[in-house]
């Protein structure tokens, strides 16, 4: 991930599967709420935008490059390094079709800005398990905007992000966080899985300032009424904001933001808040998953019991 890259997020509308009958093993978790930068290294070099070539052919979004002059290519940087000689042959995978494409060095150089080898974005860290040192974040799966699918990846990392600017939500117009990576790109943890209920991995940072672990609240004990949402809206500082839980159903719940400061600053829920932990009566309830676009003060969440079922 490039230093100080600005990261944007998109809303993901997730259809959740039915609940299971097993319960989470962990008895206590550390609630987080920090904004994180997320990077997934893809196994191929993908075409991120449609590109018209000089010969009239198109490279289409979602196509990927497998070889250059018979040599395997798995990153944009390696492709750039291999652009030697005047005549080049790219091997392109187009859905179920493989194709050879002859280009000059200049023509190949011109398509570099339209290629990608990683998926990245911004989200919120949900919890750390103090015993296993595993973490969970987002509360929903990452869908790559180019592939329109959960991306296969060969390596993943999370980094601490700092909020630079807020684009406020309004009815019909979801807002978002604009963030930068902090602490010289120091990796907080790896990403082992990108599952239905979020991303999960191993926490790699020794941080003595972590909050104290708290008990998990099982779904049958969640009450309608007051609760707190932990999230960051300025810099990297995590704050507590008041919400009201208005509906619970199986492993999911709905809530409205009642905190004046959060409403004034953000309009309610923002893109990038996915994964923000929800606490009620000092116990860990769940994580924000999405907002209601026409009513941004209203959000939905998954119970932490359900989220833990998908951890690796």
TrEMBL record:
Residues 92-312 form the Peptidase S55 domain. Pfam families: Peptidase_S55. It comes from the Bacteria. PROSITE patterns: SPOIVB. Gene3D superfamilies: 2.30.42.10. SUPFAM superfamilies: PDZ domain-like (SSF50156). InterPro entries: PDZ_sf (IPR036034), Peptidase_S55 (IPR008763). This is Peptidase. It comes from Ureibacillus manganicus DSM 26584.
């Amino acid at each position: 991930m490039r230093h100080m890259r600005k990261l944007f997020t998109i809303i993901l509308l997730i259809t959740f599967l039915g609940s299971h009958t097993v319960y989470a093993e962990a008895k206590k978790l550390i609630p987080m709420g920090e904004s994180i930068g997320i990077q997934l290294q893809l196994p191929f070099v993908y075409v991120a935008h449609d590109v018209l070539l000089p010969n009239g052919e198109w490279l289409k979004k979602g196509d990927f490059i497998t070889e250059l002059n018979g040599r395997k290519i798995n990153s944009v940087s390696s492709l750039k390094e291999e652009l030697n000689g005047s005549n080049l042959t790219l091997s392109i995978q187009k859905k179920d079709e493989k194709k050879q494409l002859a280009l000059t060095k200049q023509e190949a150089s011109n398509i570099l800005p339209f290629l990608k080898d990683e998926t990245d974005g911004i989200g919120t860290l949900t919890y750390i398990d103090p015993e296993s040192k595993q973490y969970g974040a987002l509360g929903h799966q990452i869908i790559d905007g180019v592939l329109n699918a959960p991306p296969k990846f060969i390596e993943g990392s999370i980094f601490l992000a700092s909020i630079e600017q807020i684009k406020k939500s309004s009815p019909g117009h979801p807002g978002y966080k604009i963030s930068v990576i902090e602490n010289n790109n120091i990796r907080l943890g790896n990403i082992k899985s990108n599952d239905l209920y979020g991303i999960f991995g191993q926490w790699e940072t020794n941080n003595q300032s972590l909050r104290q672990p708290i008990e998990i609240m099982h779904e049958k004990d969640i009450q309608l009424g007051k609760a707190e949402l932990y999230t960051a809206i300025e810099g990297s500082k995590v704050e507590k904001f008041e919400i009201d839980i208005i509906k619970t159903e199986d492993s999911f719940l709905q809530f409205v933001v009642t905190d004046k400061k959060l409403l004034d600053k953000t309009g309610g829920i923002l893109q990038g808040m996915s994964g923000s932990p929800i606490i009620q009566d000092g116990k860990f309830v769940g994580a924000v998953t999405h907002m209601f676009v026409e009513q941004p003060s209203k959000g939905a969440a998954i119970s932490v019991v359900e989220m833990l079922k998908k951890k690796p």
